[in-house]
Amino acid sequence: MRFSAFASSVCLPVLLAGCLTFAPKYSDVIFQKLGVVGTELTKLEILIETRAPQPVAYSGVEPLYISALASAKEAQDLATKRPAYLEGQPAAKAAELVAQNIQACWDAIEFSRKRFAREGQARNELDNIAIVKNICAIPKTMEGALK
């Protein structure tokens, strides 16, 4: 019984404090913004699926791309501020990795958007969007792990 009291009153807080040193604080706003990105990309998939076999014009998908890009940008803006206030701490590297993965998500969405605008709907468009969704799921999973 004494060990349990000691462990919970001294050891547990010390261990938790150590975790805070190596991980940035979870941001619900970043997590929610990345959730919007996933939702918009899913809407894009559904739109293409429901219109098949007819291809979807770029004008029909542009608002979904823009919404996904805007949410990724908002998440990126918040995520890039964390390494600055964590400078010199081990948690800064983890925060930087989250920010880099959000940037990779934004880049993937923008690449897909530009290609769709330039060339129209590809035959394997659903596969392309699935890849973008997977890229964008990485920073969301990383942020969620910080809870």
UniProtKB/TrEMBL annotation:
PROSITE patterns: PROKAR_LIPOPROTEIN. It comes from the Bacteria. It comes from Aliirhizobium smilacinae. The lineage of its organism: Bacteria, Pseudomonadati, Pseudomonadota, Alphaproteobacteria, Hyphomicrobiales. This is Lipoprotein.
